[in-house]
Predict the structure.
Amino acid sequence: MSHQRTLNRAVHCEGIGLHTGEPVTMTLRPAPANRGVAFRRLDLPGAPVIPARPDSVVDTHYATTVAKDGASVKTIEHIMSALVGMGVDNVQIDLTGPEVPIMDGSALPFVELLRAAGLRRQLAPKTFLKVRQPITVEVGTRSLRIVPSQRLKVIYTMCFDHAILGEQTSAMDVGRERYARDLAPCRTFGFLRDLDMLQRMGLAKGGSLENALVVGEEGVINGPLHFPDELVRHKILDLLGDLFLLGKPLVGTIIAHGAGHQLHLQLVRRIQDQLAGEPGPFSLSAAAVEQWVSPLLPTAHGLRPAVL
Ligand SMILES: [Zn+2]
């Protein structure tokens, strides 16, 4: 059996929101077992709490936004991805503004923050979600499908409407080591031709060459890329973050064609429907736990907490 994990100590970072352009400080704090992930808006009266759950999602256009009682947090997908990728189950995320900071556009700064905090084991068992039947969601030619399997695998294809990028596929057996090494450094991206439209919509106000890969007519204008398929890998990073709204790591094989936050959330809701009334979350075999659960990280002052 594996155990849930939270942070060893609070850690924080500062940055700006990609879409709002507003400065924000984000503090990650340890949370009790079975609490899951919850955001708290320190800048609003009463510091309202917004749980990271499927029913909190209010918008999926260009980012995933959660809200409760009028208080919202935008662009949660990269920190959610880092949490599930690094095996964190319970954390409270305090923000001084309406959006998670974009940092360099990837999840790596958050992985480094979690490493600085160190993780500690909690008493409650860690459980996982597994679909029993295949589920497919579609919008036009875009689709997202999950089929039952013993591990998490993702095959993601993007058909870019762009002469040079064309169609790209990335396939990954996502594990604890691969997440930090091969997914976390992959940065978000945008098309130069969409910038005017996005800014007219009030989005991408904080976007710059420092926090997003920008694609022009000739390809990415502010490379070099960390990986030849960095853009598609970033889509996998986003997918894992959105799926963690289910509250537990998911096991299955996922096949995506041109998906995005909207389809990710449709799949989340269908998985939630399928699992309602099923026997509860299950424990994985030791081999499968190996895939998902990162070893406990050394704390910043060099002490190593209890190891499994
Ligand atoms: Zn993203």
About this structure: The domain at 3-126 is CATH 3.30.230.20 (Ribosomal Protein S5; domain 2). The radius of gyration is 18 Å. Residues 294-308 have pLDDT under 50 and may be disordered. The longest helix spans residues 261-275.
